[in-house]
Amino acid sequence: MELTYDNIVKWMTEYFEVYSRYGQEPATAIRMNEYFAEDLRFIPFIAPLGGPEGGFRSRAEFIRTAVAHTAWYERLTPLDMTVDERKKAVVVLFNIDVYDRQKNAVVVKRSAIAHYNLVLDEHGRPKIKTIRFFWEVMPKGAPEFFELFGREG
Q: Hey, how many other C-beta atoms are within 10 angstroms of the C-beta on 49?
């Protein structure tokens, strides 16, 4: 696939839907292999998650963590995308709705921004190589998902 603006926007829009629907379920998380490079680096610019030194250093580690939080799941909704074809980069502003699986209700709502670097794999398919992730700081007293569900959730 050629990394044109239209192709990238379409592919990234699909990525958000696939992650939200299938990427956090043990039976279907393998679908994330279509989107993540094997050596994916997820860098959270969020102090409670370890800051830039924390995060994940492989696709397998990211997927393993995404399916491990059995008490909750995230629904990610992209609001705006900025695409740089030359740099193979996408910046996305999106909403995160954290659902309590037992109640099937949203318990945390926030906004986030992520900077994605893309590469083409050996078959010419796009993959996300790096995610630099920033989220909205919630007002004092607003619950964080790890306060509601614990670190392992």
A: 15
